[in-house]
Amino acid sequence: MYVRSPGAGGVGPKRSAPSWVGAAGNRGRTDGYEKVSQVLLNKWMSRIQRLAGLKVTGGIHILRHTFCSRLAMAGAPAKAVQELAGHQHLSTTQRYMHLSPAAKSAAIRMLEGTTQEVQNGDGLETTKISSP
Questions:
Q1: Which terminal CB of the chain, N or C, has fewer other CB atoms within 10 Å?
Q2: What is the pTM of this model?
C-alpha cells in the first residue's frame, strides 16, 4: 500500500515526510508514494479502535468484513461482492457478508408485504408501498 507524499509530483517544495511515514522514506520510489508497512497500518488501526472505544486489536483484516458487509446491506449482488473482494469461491464471500439487524428486519418486512420487490440484476431492491 502506498500513500501520497507531501510535496510529491513537483508541486511546491519537497517537505520532510510526516512522522506517520517512518524513517525509511520512499526507498528510491519515483512515483511520489511512500511505502506503508503492515506494522504502521496496525498502529493506525489500534489508534482508531482506541478512539472509537472499541477493543484494540490493531488487525486490519476486519476491513474486508466491513467492505463485504456494507456492499451486501446496500443490496449488491453476491457475485459482485465476490469479484470485488477477489474471492475465488462464493462460499468464502458469504463468510464475510454479515447483515445488520435492520437488514434482517427489512427482509422479514418483505414477507409481510410492506415492501415491493423490484428485480435489479441478480439482486433485489425494495421500495416502500404507500398506503392509499
A1: C
A2: 0.53
